[in-house]
Amino acid sequence: MSDKSVIRLQDVTFAYGEGDSLISVLDGVNFEVTAGQRTALLGRSGSGKSTLMNILAGLLMPEQGSVVWHGRDITSLSDAKRVALRRETIGVVYQFHHLLPEFSAEENVMLPAMLAGQTPTESKRIAHNLLSQVGLDHRVTHRPGELSGGERQRVAIARALAGNPSVLLMDEPTGNLDETTADQVLSMLIELSKSTGTSLVIVTHDRRVASQTDQQFELHRGQLQAVS
Ligand code: ADP
Ligand code: MG
Description:
Layout: E1 5-16, E2 23-34, E3 38-42, H1 49-56, E4 64-69, E5 72-73, H2 79-89, E6 90-93, H3 105-115, H4 120-133, H5 149-161, E7 167-171, H6 179-196, E8 199-203, H7 207-210, E9 215-220, E10 223-226
Parallel strand pairs: 3-8, 3-9, 6-7, 7-8
Antiparallel strand pairs: 1-2, 1-4, 4-5, 9-10
The chain binds adenosine-5'-diphosphate and magnesium ion.
């Protein structure tokens, strides 16, 4: 294992259901993300990409195999320890923003910083800094309902970074946006990843997006294959 290993999966298997209705989704997956590395995850609908992302995020436990964050196998940790470790390791952005509708952009981004133990003043500073980095200085007091789709996704990215995670996991983060907006959000994301040193794992159907990452894998019949 590399010293710079952030997440590593070893021989991970996963299935939904049981007996006759068993759906085997992952069948011996090995995968590693190192510090600052950007990875694209490709695969047809139903190939198990979201399942794999939930396993990387520690939200689903594999049937067999290990999930290692910074050298610690999380499958043997208590739920409480895993939740605490997830806060400093993992940031997640979904296809739909999942922002809290009653809170402003600033407040949405402040929350993870406060959960990570920052004071309200410091959390506010972090939120402003991140919202500025995603180009939303002028929208800090807006609620999600007052923002465009692209702006909401940028707030979701700022929020995911507010706990200063080692890796950002993104499941089709721009799947809900038009092509131009998606391109803008993704270029911004790659720049942010470079400036902060945060690793990225992006599930995408877009080969152009994939071409901007350091490594590309395709999930097929439960196995991860490197795409050349
Ligand atoms: P992808 O994100 O690549 O589209 P998913 O990981 O969502 O794929 O799903 C992989 C397979 O597992 C699909 O066949 C899907 O129908 C099935 N599946 C996903 N979630 C569940 C669930 N909660 N229960 C049963 N089967 C599921
Ligand atoms: Mg999916």
